[in-house]
Amino acid sequence: MRKLLLPGLALMLGLPAIAMGLQGQQPSRLFAAFAEPPGLMQGCTDVPEAVALAETLRDRALRIERYMETIDERKAELAVAEETLRVRLAELRSQKGGIQSRRTAHSDAVRTDIERLVAVYDRMKPNEAAAILTNLPTDFAAEILIRVQPETGARIIASVEPRQAALLTAQMGARSVRNQ
């Protein structure tokens, strides 16, 4: 019999709260305090301990009710903040996608430009290409020489003065080592 008492009490006390939850009402309304419960002090006004206890219980109930209201307000504020964050996150993800697509498009454009430039140097005569490359910054000239056809690159380096050819070769080797 004892084993059934506790689950039975839990069921009796929990069913109204569950029913209110299913109806969309707040279960905290079951425990809401009122300023003056009717009939609570009837016949006990001459006992000071009972009056003090009733006032203490009423004050506690009012504090709990205010606390529950505060919690509900904070829940609402958190829900608004959470929705704001979701919207902002969606905006940021959209912006990130746009930035990545622009970056990809820019990289593709740069790659295409470099390929065109390399194709131009591949078609030039080695002496003409060497004259232009000697006037370019060493790292840029080395980058072009790395990308042209090996035979064309060899002819261009052969057409450059030895000191400049050594610098270009060193730059090309350093770049190759960095990429490994």
What does it look like?
With 180 residues, the chain is mainly α. It has 2 domains: 35-106; 124-180, no CATH class. The protein is built from 6 helices and no strands. α3 (126-133) crosses α5 and α4 packs across α6. It is rod-shaped, with a radius of gyration of 42 Å. The model has no long low-confidence stretch (mean pLDDT 83).
Give me the secondary-structure topology:
Layout: H1 2-22, H2 48-123, H3 126-133, H4 138-147, H5 150-159, H6 162-179
Helix pairs in contact: 3-5, 4-6
Assess the beta-strand content as a share of residues. under 5%
Instruction: State the order of secondary-structure elements, H for helix, E for strand.
Output: HHHHHH
Query: From the helix content, strand content and strand pairing, which structural class follows?
Result: mainly alpha
Helix count equals 6
The tally of strands reads: 0
Q: Tell me, what's the shape?
A: rod-shaped
Major β-sheet profile: none
Straight-line distance between termini: 80 Å
Quick summary of this structure?
InterPro entries: Mg_transptr_MgtE_intracell_dom. 79% of the residues lie in helices and 0% in strands.
Main features:
single chain; about 180 residues; rod-shaped
